[in-house]
Design a protein that fits this description.
Length: about 260
């Protein structure tokens, strides 16, 4: 089926690979004009070009989500180049291992500056853009099943994702008056470069095989398989579209049946 523009604009942080890339591709297919925002402008550019470039409603934008001014600049560039702004997907993040005894001030500062602060700046920048444009919008951020249940070996990552859920619940209440909904999506174990790196690191830290590392994250999945990035993108598509207009403050698990509420 040929793509038909829906008149909406979305920005996806961390859109140059993995889940972010899958989200950008899905939203573009849904008819959004899409800004692929990433620290690595080369990978973001490759994704944008694969979608047809600016003429087809896809641009690459440089962003360092740990820096407030950079996030605001990315949103402003998106508004200027794509002529609007309706959805932000705060997807960028890192997932280092963090054994409890090895946590330092520096490791806390680094992961929170990216995973958590980046969502704060994204919420602020999107809210400003929506208000300036005179309409509401949708703010969607990446949580995790590890933000619903603490996972072994990744205490700081889990902490940032729990924090994102709490922030989003409060933002949903504060911003509802402006017609802005705020939700999170919570993936389980997704076949991405980031997850592969994490599984290898967990295995190496334990002196085990890579297969053992994967098993630490994949055991207990009711559907007995890993997730594809496109399956996560499908939930973000729902949260970005009109069928989710009456949903706010929620965290939708996309984990194959790891966490049950």
């Amino acid at each position: 089926m040929a793509r038909t523009e829906n008149g909406k604009v979305a920005l996806v942080t961390g859109g140059g690979q993995g889940i972010g890339q899958a989200i950008a591709e899905r939203l573009h297919a849904d008819g959004f004009r899409v800004a692929i925002a990433d620290l690595n402008l080369e990978t973001a550019g490759a994704v944008a070009e694969s979608l047809g470039g600016k003429d087809a409603g896809a641009i690459a934008v440089h962003v360092n989500v740990s820096e407030r001014d950079s996030v605001f600049a990315a949103v402003e560039q998106t508004v200027a180049e794509l002529r609007g702004f309706d959805v932000i997907v705060n997807n960028a993040g890192i997932a280092p291992t963090s054994p409890i005894e090895e946590i330092t001030q520096e490791s806390i500062a680094k992961i929170f500056s990216i995973n958590f602060n980046g969502v704060v700046w994204g919420i602020q920048a999107a809210t400003k853009a929506f208000k300036d444009l005179g309409h509401g919008g949708k703010i969607i951020s990446a949580a995790s099943q590890a933000g619903h249940v603490g996972n072994p070996g990744i205490a700081l990552y889990s902490a940032t994702k729990f924090a994102i859920r709490g922030l989003s619940q409060t933002a949903a209440k504060d911003l509802a008056q402006f017609g802005i909904t705020v939700n999170t999506f919570a993936p389980g174990i997704v076949k991405t470069p980031l997850m592969e790196e994490l599984a290898k690191k967990v295995a190496a830290d334990a002196g085990k095989s890579e297969e053992w590392g994967w098993e630490q994250f994949t055991k207990g999945i009711a559907l007995d398989r890993l997730s594809e990035a496109s399956e996560v993108a499908g939930v973000v598509s729902f949260l970005s579209g009109p069928d989710s207009n009456y949903i706010t403050g929620q965290s939708i698990l996309v984990d194959g049946g790891m966490v049950f509420n």
